[in-house]
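Sample A.
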Amino acid sequence: MKTIFCSVVLAVSMLGCTSGPKEKPDSEPVSNVSAPLPIEGKRSAPVAIDASLREASAKLTLKFERKGEGVSVDVSGIDGLTLKSEGAVLRDAAITAGEVKSFEVAYARGAGRTNLVISVRGTFDGAPLARVVTFAIGEGPLTQTGTTVILNDGEAFKLMNAQ
């Protein structure tokens, strides 16, 4: 009888020690994504962009392959993602070849899948170049706003509102 009582007490105490699913703290990456250098021959800013995406923030790492002048980096959100930090993370900077820049960006996610947009522009090797990269955050379909229009021939399309 004593053995059964001790077993029941032990089992009940173990139930009290279990915990439910925990939410990931913002310090843990949800995903790591990368946009390597553009395809050779395609005219765009020579920068590789890596992002460690978390629930409410991202760490962006940009590696510049060539020297640049007047380089600016802007971050924004689309499809429901809004920034909580400054969107202009770099302004009119002089960059050396091989230089690495890192930035922390805080945001609030929308429902479903949203996108973080990184835009780099500047003058590289005497030519004005730009590169825009987006990283999807979350899962599910994109939020679609706008009006569905059906033409006389039955073809349907969605008329999107300007953002």
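Sample B.
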Amino acid sequence: MVRKIEELRATSDEDLIAEHDAKAGHTSVGTSYYMDELERRSRERAAQRSHELAVRSFWLAIATSALSLVAVVVSVLALVLGS
């Protein structure tokens, strides 16, 4: 039985996994099955690395802002105390 796309998208991950596992023993697969899984894993790793890069960029922006604020304070103090 093939599900309609709307029904497939509404099905929970757990139900899809259970359905897959039930049919897996009675199905022969080609090499594309393994290639698709390798591609999925590659995308998952890339997404994780992208997220880690975004987090690091956020903290770098915070540090840059803090250091810029310190530089402004030092500049204002130099102007005020230097006169």
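B remarks: The radius of gyration is 27 Å. The chain is about 85% helix and 0% strand.
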